[in-house]
Amino acid sequence: MEGNPKFDASQDIPDFPYARFGEMLGFKGIFVDSPDRLAAAWQEALSSDRPVVLEVKTDPDVVPLPPHVTLKQARGFMSAMAKGDGAAGRIIGETAKQVVDGLFGKKE
User: Fold this and answer.
1) What is the Cα–Cα distance from 63 to 55, expressed in whole angstroms?
2) How high is the pLDDT of residue 30?
3) Per-residue pLDDT tens digits for 13-25
């Protein structure tokens, strides 16, 4: 990956109904395309009586952060961004918004 935070092979995922496919296999399929539905979807998945395919549509320019970001993780993120991602400004802005929303609650 050479420090590139957007490794091409991990960015091009086929548009496929993964949750529906999981249901065809006997799993519980859950599809989420709205941030407001994500918490309920996780609750549904974690309380399921069988394996779950949780399909979540996300913005590729918003970095999925762990609930509690350490200083080391933040430094690694900034280092990766400094390596020349053309969308770095937008990614950093959206990530900062995600962190602030997590700390202070989402502003409506």
Assistant:
1) 17
2) 98
3) 788 999 999 999 9
| Residue 28 β-bridge partners | 52
Nearest to 19 by CA among 5, 4, 3, 37: 37
The predicted model scores a pTM of: 0.59
DSSP character string of the chain: -TT-SS-HHHH------HHHHHHHTTSEEEEE-SHHHHHHHHHHHHT-SS-EEEEE---TTS----SS--HHHHHHHHHHHTTT-TTHHHHHHHHHHHHHHHHH----
Residue 53 near residue 28, CB atoms below 8 Å: yes
